[in-house]
Amino acid sequence: MHSPFDLSKPIAIGSDHAGYDHKESLISFLEGKGIPFKDFGTHTKDSVDYPDFAHPVAEAVESGGYSFGILLCGTANGVAITANKHQNIRAAICWGEEIASLVRRHNDANIICIPARFVSEPLAEKMLQIFMYTEFEGGRHSSRVNKIACAV
Ligand code: RB5
Q: Is residue 87 within 8 Å of 63, Cβ to Cβ?
């Protein structure tokens, strides 16, 4: 299946403690498919601060050395708010298959943010697959996306 992302580059993935189990589940899925990734942590279920993982994943995606990003926390809001502080990041919270498609088609999202306390692991995996293989539609959405970043 064709992906709009360059999957020869690793996916950057990270979570806090609330997203840890879902992160490990998504990592198993990526390993099973032979898709490269880098795990930015957290590496245990001990309580941590989500910005310590969201910033490195956002920086990795912004650097161009990674295909896209995956972030997880309890609600996905903490990681999304943090990642979206980065100028060229469009981090989108997804809680259903159609949203995962729309954030790619309309918003050209480059990080999928998953609320681990509110979606099942199978749904998280399904949303990741949809996100990974859905193209940005461009057209009228391009002018909107081009207005998102603040002037520097
Ligand atoms: C952790 O308890 C929780 O606050 C965090 O995972 C996230 O939901 C914050 O937005």
A: no
Q: Which two tokens stand for residue 108?
A: 């050209």
What are the φ/ψ torsions at residue 37 (nearest 5 degrees)? -155, 160
Ligand 1 center to 78 CA (angstroms) = 6
Q: Ligand 1 mean position to 16 CA, how many Å? A: 8
* Domains of the chain in sequence order: 11-145 (3.40.1400.10)
How far is the C-alpha of 58 from the C-alpha of 65, rounded, in Å?
Answer: 11
C-alpha 8 chain-centroid distance? 17
Q: What tens digit of pLDDT does each residue of 60-106 get?
A: 999 999 999 999 999 999 999 999 999 999 999 999 999 999 999 99
Residue 151: pLDDT band with limits 50, 70, 90: confident
